[in-house]
Amino acid sequence: MSIAMGGHIECYLDIASFFSYIALADLLPNLTALEGYGIQVDLIPTLIGGINHLSGNKPPWMLPAKAKYLEADSQRAARRVSKPRIAFPKDFLSMSNTISPLRAMLFIKKNYPEATFIAAMHFLFDKFWSPPHANLTVDEELAAVLAAATETPEGGPRLFGEEDVRRIMDGRAEMKDTLKQNTARAVELGAFGAPWFWVVNEEGKGEPFFGSDRFNHIYQHLGLPFQDVALVKTAKL
What we know:
Structural class: alpha+beta
Number of strands: 6
Organism: Stachybotrys elegans
GO cellular component, one term: mitochondrion
Distance between the termini: 29 Å
EC number: 2.5.1.18
Catalytic activity: RX + glutathione = an S-substituted glutathione + a halide anion + H(+)
InterPro entries: DSBA-like_thioredoxin_dom, GST_Kappa/NadH, Thioredoxin-like_sf
């Protein structure tokens, strides 16, 4: 069997999107393997509210049946990626306009090493979705989370010093157009929500994928070997 080498994954994520965090948690352990296959992964901060507005979509909780279903499904998804503590904040609606932290992420992406950007994104996602749920729309809380950011949500070396935090907070304004462009780009690629993926294989063929549970389809499109869902046979079978 020949294994494809090369390709590109554009991954459009918003901190305020629960399933964006699920997708990120699923993707992070596989980044090294994807790099080994020559697959470039680009994590792109994107405003889900802007995607909904431009695409004409509405948040799932606006439909009562979807909202009820998400109560159970979100926790199933969290357990699968070993994030059992994460949950929707009680004040989610007032916290969900994440323009400020997304601009901060874009500034970090532009001015710091990729590993720092990825670690910072993971840390901010975790602080937003884990109790007591940091409100990243408030400058003081965003600055405090950046100051506390470590290599992983569980700990490790600090990512930023005091001067770095001031630089990031001050630099958010210059990322206004970049965030708009990222959001428009996602919609141009067909996005109606997040996480949204645009995946180009080694033959140059691009396809869209939506949701946190589409990695089997993504890897198949890229021609990568992977283990799909399969029952484990018992001795009786």
